Amino acid sequence: MKLLVTGGAGFIGSAVIRHIIHNTQDDVVNLDKLTYAGNLESLAEISDSSRYAFEQVDICNRAEVDRVLKQHQPDAIMHLAAESHVDRSIDGPADFIETNIVGTYTLLEAARHYWQGLHEQRRTNFRFHHISTDEVYGDLGELPSPLAGEGPGERGGDQELPLFTEQTPYAPSSPYSASKASSDHLVRAWHRTYGLPVLLTNCSNNYGPYHFPEKLIPLVILNALEGKPLPVYGKGEQIRDWLYVEDHARALYKVVTEGKIGETYNIGGHNEKQNIEVVQAICGLLEELAPGKPDGLAYYRDLITFVSDRPGHDLRYAIDAEKIQEELGWAPAETFDTGLRKTVQWYLSSRDWCKRVQDGSYQRERLGVGA
């Protein structure tokens, strides 16, 4: 099988491609515009594989997308290309509308015409897998206060807490999540109207190796190592369900190869944590793994700095991943503790990667572009 992965130089896309090359016999074509968050160094370990090809293409460029489809003849498309940073979407929503909505529309139309031109057996087997986020569902609200004797992760006791299911109505809060919700609706419309064989997945917060340094976990790790403030919105009470990126990659491959056409699958890590808990956990791991702190710093946690909350900040997300577990047999392999330890260890051993991805030096070297 040959898979076309859009956004394959991004955080999740590169994990998907590494998983496919290392664990299957499939071929992969990586279609990526290479924006600030796309980094080919995340794929350095597999870039010389005969089963891997790279195309620097913007999904909004219909002629180039058509060319790639005609040239490479994929059996399935995994659509991960997206602008995904909430803060950036608040400061400048136009790029999110262009890439996440117009880009998805352009890709859908190219895929539809490509799919309609395939011979019968290949047309029957073709898949368009759209990868989305739990943020389209909006805000689950506040958890009950911890009861006496409860530990972390046990808030609410025996009370049934709401979770996002595949039937949860959409209620996006930010320009980013609204643009992703729009793209989800487009994908479902192309299935209903044109019969395009689609699959959708909505995931919780990903973390792990190769994450762009502006995101919470890598930002906290790198700032702490440099003795810089660790910014936490509000009081850090926002709750997210954390999913190790390699677990997510396994789930996505399961869906594109075994999922039922027209279905949506929620993918979560079963790891609800307040942001402040995440930051404190990172500080604790750094005390153990990187005890040589910057001059004048007694404890990493002393760097925690509470800042003004961002507009429209959702309080809680939590995924019910029962469907994918029951129907496709997927479950996360990593707990939050094991995944976070692996993540911190990776960043400690990959400081050069962080520097190169931030200054773009690897990208320029790989593409032959002058500094």
List the helices and strands and how they pair.
Layout: E1 2-6, H1 11-23, E2 27-32, E3 52-56, H2 62-72, E4 76-79, H3 86-91, H4 94-116, H5 120-125, E5 127-133, H6 175-194, E6 198-203, E7 205-207, H7 216-225, E8 230-233, E9 239-244, H8 245-258, E10 264-267, E11 272-274, H9 275-289, E12 304-307, H10 322-328, H11 336-348, H12 351-359, H13 361-367
Parallel strand pairs: 1-2, 1-4, 2-3, 4-5, 5-6, 6-10, 7-9, 8-12
Antiparallel strand pairs: 9-11
Helix pairs in contact: 1-8, 2-4, 4-6, 7-9, 9-11
Number of helices: 13
Low-pLDDT regions: 147-157
Under CATH at level 1, the class stands as Alpha Beta
Distance between the termini: 38 Å
Q: How many individual domains?
A: 1
Helical coverage, percent range? 40-55%
CATH topology name:
Rossmann fold
Q: Provide the succession of SSEs.
A: EHEEHEHHHEHEEHEEHEEHEHHHH
Taking the sheet with the most strands, its summary is: 7 strands, parallel
Topology, number of strands: 12
Level-2 CATH architecture? 3-Layer(aba) Sandwich
**Structural class, judged by helices and strands?**
alpha/beta
Shape assignment: globular
**Rounded average pLDDT:** 92
Strand arrangement across the biggest beta sheet: 3-2-1-4-5-6-10
CATH superfamily (homologous) name: NAD(P)-binding Rossmann-like Domain
**Rg from Cα:** 21 Å
Strand content: 15-25%
